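Example A, followed by Example B.
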Amino acid sequence: MNGERPPDPHLPETLTRLLRAPKSAIWPTPEDRNRLRLGRQRPRQPSRAILGVWLWVILYNVIGFAILAALWRTMR
């Protein structure tokens, strides 16, 4: 109350080490602002395997829809 700041509590390092962000953190920290960013600077392009899976999914659904449409047509 007399204008002095209360002393900071003295906590052991084992309690405070998790309060600081590790260097391998996913989110950027203020210390990371000036750090050099090594590695890839742009988003990765999807691999050809993923594109192949998408193509297979689309063809699978189109062929399935064609089969269902043919069966529905024979029922009429």
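Example B, a separate protein, is given below in the same form.
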Amino acid sequence: MNTRRITFLIFCIALLFASCKKDSGLDPLSNVVFPKNGVIRIECTDCALTYTILKDNFAVDVKNSEDVKFSYVSDFELKTSINSKKKQNIRLAVFDSYGRMVSNELSSIEQGVSKIDSFNIKVN
């Protein structure tokens, strides 16, 4: 009777350790970095938005309000410049990948004047 109990106990312990998930270097997604996507929302009728992510520059001509998606994988400083083609109120809102509002500004900008801002975007 004791031999059966000991055998059953050893079998249960072996089954317990065999069912545990072990981290493996063979996992194909172990070293993959997934990008985060943020949004720049600009509300204006006729303006130009240029923005810089790390060392990459992007430009967007906005005729009406527009949402501009940007991607990132680490903390960085988002630099924006808005050039208005006429005097108007312009709203610039920046959202990170979790939907948190980083900035929401309403500014009155004169024709031909550029408004430059920078925002710190965090991964977490």
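On Example B: The two ends are 57 Å apart (CA to CA).
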